[in-house]
Amino acid sequence: MSGDAAALLATLPAWAFGFVLVMARVGGAVALLPGLGESEPPTILRVGLAVAVTALLLSGIAPSIPATPEASVQAAAMIAAELVTGLWLGWLARMMVLALPIAGQFIGYMMGIANVLQPDPVLGSQATPISSLLAIAAPLFVLASGLYALPLAALAGSYAVVPAGAMLPAADGAETAMRAVTAAFGVALQLASPFILASIVWHVATGLLARLVPRLQVYFIAMPAQLVGSMLLLAVLASALMSAWGEAARTAFRALPGL
Fold this sequence. Notes:
By secondary structure, this protein is mainly alpha-helical.
């Protein structure tokens, strides 16, 4: 065996450990990243994407990858730490995408089309057609607009924030997660605010009508009018709603750790 071949074989364990270490963070992130971690594409496609991203990142961050530890327990702990960091980063990006279907939940409630018989496995609450539609529109918007590149860039830059093999700081990670949840809920409420305002005005008007005309069956008149009016309002505001959410998502992605 030549000297070059022997040297290559000697470096293979270090490269293998580095690949597994990077793959743990990338795989955890890709499982949740918006547009890339959706449940609809085949699993083999998402695995292949994670492997491709790992291969691209490995050569660039190889100097910062720690040496292969002697103890298998330490190696397992480092891989687990990388997986937690990847899941954390992917979840931060996913929160802003969830703001759109959450806004759809608010809109559906204001329209009066919530259905307790259709549980939503993603949001963990009652599903509405508007929420399901916006849940499909969110990843499509991310992929079509190129916003998916920002979380991937944050993933590459995350090694400057959390070194390879290091544990994610619990306090900083929890604080960042709380800010992401707050921002996502705030954006969802802002997107649904026209419908919330219209619903308040409508219910006050129907209440006054019921007081003025007690014999009138207000419910049978108000519900169809509420549904038609809400659909018209949604048709008018749909473009502006998607544009506002797109800007909020771009701002949130640019604030991800690593960018």
